[in-house]
Design the sequence.
């Protein structure tokens, strides 16, 4: 018997380690031979710890499992969920980037290769740098961490730059509320990221890479460091990648807890040992990035998707999606929902389907009031706009952004004036202080919203003007995007602001 118990941080927080230990103890007591595999999570957090039992080549799921369930699990009398692939939440997904996550031991390179791993890198080793970049361009892949900039164009800029050294930097400083896809992938399928970074190195001429992981992710740091060591030992990394004579190596670096280091230039400063402060652009990091050299800075999901594109071809990947939003997006569902977790699907699914159907509505049972898409700097989307398809341009047309594709659901008890205030306060606390619109604007924004909360209607035009200044004048997205949640709360939920005036009167 083989039993899979996730080692993912979310599963561990819900008791997975205790369940794994109990299975080992109970099996030993009974004299049973049980192989326990610590896999990644399948992404259905409400079912964690989700234990899978493999017998005769079939894997059946049970969850959520607690220590008291272990005897019945080994007896075969514990009610199950059937194969994971048949669970409705999972069955409706199109898993490309997360195809192996939860399926294998994340540090088993043999299992990784048996399930399609390294095929993309082996193909890339037979191609020219220009052809690799061309494949990425043709796939339509766009940055999965922010503004959705075409990945292939960024790579081509670095490829054609003249420099004695180039770098690949993976931004794993996943600080947005309601996001966990980067962590889940690094903990559950780290070789996918390593393979993607190696391909990026081949495509651009970079021989060195760094993964910048936020300090709040100790499990991801441990797994990635172990995966890099295994990669070097097995020839996946180093001076002779897979025996090709081509070099690429990488290191894991840990951040110090600053949200602003999720911005690429602030991250580069931190990597160099400097204070995490935003740089003015130009020059672009693609031309003068880490240590002044041409640098690719991509999000975890962007780099992890590269191996799919090289393995299956650009046309296969581009066949999924909507308009200019090609491929799939791992959407992270969080907040007040019945079924929170990771749902990878092709772009184009209406937001309402994600909230009402996939997520099952609110956990509280109350009506949905708003959904914030894109982290703490994302706009609040009202129910009236739930027909909006999940795509970059489609959200932009509605005054929103996809960002890292985290969605946080709120029921009708949420006070949107307080949520607007939180956005301004968040910006004030996390600002690096480099530019005036962000550094001072956010502080004045909190004060202005407090005036509105006290019934001062004259402060509303001031807040609108302040948001316009922050949006147009800030150096980076922290100050530039804070107006999205503030103005969406003000314009789409005016009753919450009017209620403050009525209460004051």
Sequence:
């Amino acid at each position: 018997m083989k039993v899979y118990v996730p080692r993912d941080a979310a599963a561990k927080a819900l008791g997975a380690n205790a369940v794994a230990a109990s299975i080992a103890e109970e099996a030993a007591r009974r004299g049973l031979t049980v192989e326990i595999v610590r896999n990644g999570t399948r992404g259905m957090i409400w079912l964690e710890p989700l234990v899978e039992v493999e017998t005769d080549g079939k894997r059946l799921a049970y969850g959520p499992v607690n220590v008291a369930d272990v005897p019945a699990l080994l007896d075969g009398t514990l009610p199950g969920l059937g194969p994971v692939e048949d669970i409705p939440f999972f069955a409706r997904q199109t898993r490309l980037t997360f195809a192996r996550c939860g399926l294998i031991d994340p540090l088993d390179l043999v299992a990784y290769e048996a399930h399609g791993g390294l095929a993309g890198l082996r193909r890339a080793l037979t191609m020219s740098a220009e052809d690799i970049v061309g494949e990425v361009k043709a796939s339509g892949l766009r940055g999965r961490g922010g503004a959705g900039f075409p990945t292939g164009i960024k790579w081509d800029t670095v490829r054609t730059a003249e420099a004695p050294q180039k770098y690949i930097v993976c931004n794993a400083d996943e600080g947005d509320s309601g996001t966990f896809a980067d962590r889940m992938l690094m903990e559950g399928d780290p070789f996918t990221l390593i393979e993607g970074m190696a391909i990026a190195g081949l495509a651009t001429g970079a021989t060195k890479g760094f993964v910048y992981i936020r300090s709040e992710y100790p499990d991801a740091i441990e797994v990635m460091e172990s995966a890099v060591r295994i990669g070097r030992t097995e020839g996946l990394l180093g001076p002779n990648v897979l025996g090709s004579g081509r070099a690429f190596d990488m290191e894991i670096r840990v951040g110090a807890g600053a949200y602003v280091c999720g911005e690429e230039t602030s991250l580069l400063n931190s990597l160099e040992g400097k204070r995490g402060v935003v740089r003015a652009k130009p020059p672009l990091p693609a031309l003068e990035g880490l240590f002044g050299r041409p640098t690719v800075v991509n999000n975890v999901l962007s780099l992890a998707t590269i191996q799919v594109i090289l393995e299956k071809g650009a046309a296969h990947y581009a066949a999924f999606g909507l308009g200019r939003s090609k491929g799939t997006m791992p959407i992270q569902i969080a907040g007040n929902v019945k079924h929170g977790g990771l749902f990878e699907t092709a772009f184009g699914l209406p937001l309402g389907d994600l909230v009402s159907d996939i997520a099952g509505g609110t956990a509280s049972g109350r009506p949905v009031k708003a959904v914030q898409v894109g982290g703490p700097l994302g706009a609040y989307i009202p129910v009236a706009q739930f027909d909006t398809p999940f795509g970059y341009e489609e959200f932009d047309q509605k005054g929103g952004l996809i960002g890292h594709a985290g969605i946080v659901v709120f029921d009708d008890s949420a006070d949107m004036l307080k949520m607007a205030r939180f956005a301004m306060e968040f910006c004030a606390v996390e600002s690096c202080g480099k530019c005036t619109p962000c550094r001072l604007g956010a502080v004045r924004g909190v004060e202005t919203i407090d005036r509105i909360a006290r019934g001062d209607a004259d402060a509303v035009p001031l807040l609108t003007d302040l948001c316009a200044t922050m949006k147009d004048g800030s150096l980076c997205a922290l100050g530039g995007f804070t107006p999205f949640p503030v103005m969406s709360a003000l314009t789409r939920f005016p009753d919450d602001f009017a209620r403050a005036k009525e209460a004051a009167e």
About this structure: Residues 218-233 form the longest helix (16 residues).
